[in-house]
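Project outcomes to date are best conveyed with an example. Our students and postdoctoral researchers have been running inverse folding experiments weekly, and each run begins with a structure described purely in tokens. The record below, which covers 440 residues, was selected by the lab manager from last quarter's runs and is presented without edits.
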């Protein structure tokens, strides 16, 4: 006996199977992301010659109690980036295998007397005893970054390259107790990540001073979030061809109860250190969407767009695209009405994690703008390769170009490039007819 299936029934079954397949894919993807997060927070790699976190902590503490005060040693902290990207592309097992291969190469290449420990997820601690001086430690940092960055063959002979950063500190210059040294090491690593891909940074007292000065604000920021002291200000963007309103750029400010209105430079770096930078990004997007709907209620025919500034540090967060996607869905907002502007792009232009997250945000429908790019002709290859819609020329760009040999030529070339490639140029601080002519 055969069951006769009509065309209509077949179509319904196909739709049901498609929905089921999508549903299962979402469940599998979320499971992989949870496993990836758990791995990054908890798991340690088991490789011969690699110590555990507790073992190396114990050894360093013991060593500190025995060595003479005039002795010295070095600590290095390696953090491998882009792990989440590899999990997304190839799955958790392949990502684990790739990470293990990279660290195995490091272990094999270094002297046996250098002790290395898996310090949780993609962090690794290196302990260089007193026989190794600080110049040797710096050479080791360079060597480790170079080894980690070499191509690794994984799934179906595919080559991948990890990006990494290293923080360095020295005993007794940067601390005489293990906690002090570890704190110095983490501050150095944080600054290495800020410096860009495959960079190492040696701890300095300036970093500590800056870090200490920010502690008070760190606690105040937590209260400010609860008390809703952060606000957005808006600056109009005018279309110079039609002299009509194009949209608004949003600027975050902190309405501090004692110090008045604070600019981002006074608190964003603290938020990056505390992890609150993701909160400010999500909150800022929601506030802009609310403002958009308020304007549309009063001026329903007005076609406007909003620009939201995001820092490269926000783009290091693997959850930025999923979080922004949820916000769009919650408010039923069209993504193409919002332009995400990346600040100080040139500092991070070689960071693949940032590039991949920009691509994900672009796929959601957001417009992408960049500013702070280089002042040379290689700028165009970068602009052409990136998924951007808008090029932002700020006041600093114009001032810097005047002082360079280009003398306005690059502005004209960028404007021509934008016209040919259907991109928008936004110029900040246009105050003279000459500057207006340059960007037309």
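After processing, the design step wrote out the following sequence:
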């Amino acid at each position: 006996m055969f069951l006769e299936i009509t065309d209509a029934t077949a179509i319904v079954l196909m739709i049901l199977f498609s929905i089921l397949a999508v549903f299962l894919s979402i469940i599998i993807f979320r499971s992989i992301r949870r496993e990836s997060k758990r791995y990054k927070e908890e798991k340690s790699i088991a490789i011969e010659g690699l110590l555990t976190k507790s073992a190396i902590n114990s050894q360093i503490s013991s060593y500190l109690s025995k060595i003479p005060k005039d002795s010295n040693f070095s600590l290095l902290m390696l953090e491998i980036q882009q792990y989440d990207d590899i999990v997304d592309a190839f799955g958790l097992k392949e990502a684990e295998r790739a990470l293990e291969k990279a660290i195995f190469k490091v272990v094999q290449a270094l002297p046996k007397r250098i002790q290395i420990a898996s310090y949780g997820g993609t962090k690794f601690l290196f302990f260089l005893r007193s026989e190794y001086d600080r110049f040797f430690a710096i050479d080791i940092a360079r060597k480790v970054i170079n080894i980690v960055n070499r191509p690794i063959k994984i799934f179906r002979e595919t080559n991948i390259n990890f990006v990494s950063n290293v923080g360095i500190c020295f005993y007794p210059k940067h601390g005489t107790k293990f906690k002090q040294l570890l704190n110095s090491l983490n501050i150095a690593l944080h600054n290495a990540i800020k410096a860009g891909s495959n960079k190492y940074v040696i701890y300095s007292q300036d970093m500590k001073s800056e870090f200490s000065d920010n502690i008070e604000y760190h606690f105040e920021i937590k209260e400010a979030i609860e008390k809703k002291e952060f606000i957005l200000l808006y600056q109009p963007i005018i279309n110079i061809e039609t002299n009509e309103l194009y949209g608004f750029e949003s600027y975050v400010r902190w309405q501090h109860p004692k110090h008045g209105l604070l600019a981002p430079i006074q608190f964003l770096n603290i938020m990056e250190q505390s992890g609150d930078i993701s909160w400010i990004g999500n909150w800022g997007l929601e506030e802009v969407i609310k403002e958009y709907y308020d304007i549309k209620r009063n001026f329903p025919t007005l076609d406007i767009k909003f620009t939201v500034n995001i820092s490269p540090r926000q783009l290091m967060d693997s959850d930025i695209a999923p979080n922004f996607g949820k916000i769009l869905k919650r408010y039923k907002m069209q993504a193409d009405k919002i332009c995400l502007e990346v600040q100080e792009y040139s500092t991070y232009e070689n960071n693949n994690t940032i590039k991949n997250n920009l691509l994900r945000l672009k796929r959601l429908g957001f417009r992408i703008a960049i500013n702070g790019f280089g002042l040379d002709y290689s700028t165009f290859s970068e602009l052409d390769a990136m998924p951007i819609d808008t090029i932002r020329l700020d006041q600093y760009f114009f001032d810097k170009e005047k002082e360079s040999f280009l003398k306005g030529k690059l502005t004209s070339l960028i404007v021509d490039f934008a016209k040919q490639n259907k991109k928008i140029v936004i110029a900040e601080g246009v105050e003279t007819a000459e500057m207006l002519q340059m960007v037309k």
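The CA atoms of residues 415 and 439 lie 6 Å apart. Residues 1-13, 18-42 have pLDDT under 50 and may be disordered. The training component of this project remains on track.
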